Amino acid sequence: MKTQNPRPQSPNHSARKISTSRGKTAGNRSHPLSSLAVSLLSASALLASVQSGQAVSATWAASASGNWNAGGNWSTGSAPGLGGTGANSTDTATFNLNNTGVTTVSVDTSRDIGNITFDTDASSYTFSGGPLWLTVGAKIQMTAAMTGHNVTEKFTAPITLWDGGGQTFTNNSTDATNIFQFGSVNASQNNGLVLNGSNTGNNAINGAITSSVGNLTVTKDGTGTWALTGSNTY
């Protein structure tokens, strides 16, 4: 009786081929939702990159008058703040150069800024043009580090307080001759403005304080002096 050897099988080889084939098929298949998610993430990253490139805190570097939106006038080569109402910038614009005479900074239309700070050697600046929009919680301040004398930081550019409130004008200069002079101030909606600081000089809002929509409250805080001399309607 003859015994037939069974035909050799190669199950492992077949399994590898199937597995490899399926792996390739799965790897090459493109799911439409996955592609959409990747596209959205890429677009968001691009938008964040663009916004980051357009807005950055900076210090005024020009020794003469100039335009706010000219990057060359700033330490970073890019103007702080964003263009457009309600942009909600968190940037800080710092002024600490002791220029000869009064430096006029021409503010472009609807520049939105988080903070404006005057300190150390800052001389007198006048801000024209505008309007200048202040982000929720924004502060325009003169610090105790100011070393100048008889300095006036003047805003002829109208200031608009963005909806949400918490904006503050603060003068903590220890020299009473270093003062703020503001023009008109308008609240876009329900809002609150705080006049703060320890400076006892003639700080004032000389323009009208108004509210376009809703209510505006103006609060005096600190030991400093503030005068409201305009025809206020808030």
Characterization of the model:
The protein has 234 residues and is α/β, with parallel strands linked by helices. Helix content is 18%, strand content 34%. The protein contains two helices and 18 strands. Strands 1, 3, 4, 6, 8, 10, 11, 13, 14, 16 and 17 form an eleven-stranded mixed sheet that branches. It has a seven-stranded parallel sheet with strand order 2-5-7-9-12-15-18, with no helix packed on it. The longest helix has 23 residues. The relative contact order is 0.10.
- Mean pLDDT across all amino acids: 82
Which secondary-structure class do the elements indicate? alpha/beta
The proportion of residues in beta strands is 25-35%
From the alpha carbons, calculate the radius of gyration and give it in angstroms: 30 Å
Cα distance spanning the termini = 116 Å
Oligomerization state = single chain
Number of helices: 2
Stretches where pLDDT is under 50 for at least 5 consecutive residues are 1-53
Secondary-structure element order, N to C = HHEEEEEEEEEEEEEEEEEE
Q: What is the number of beta strands?
A: 18
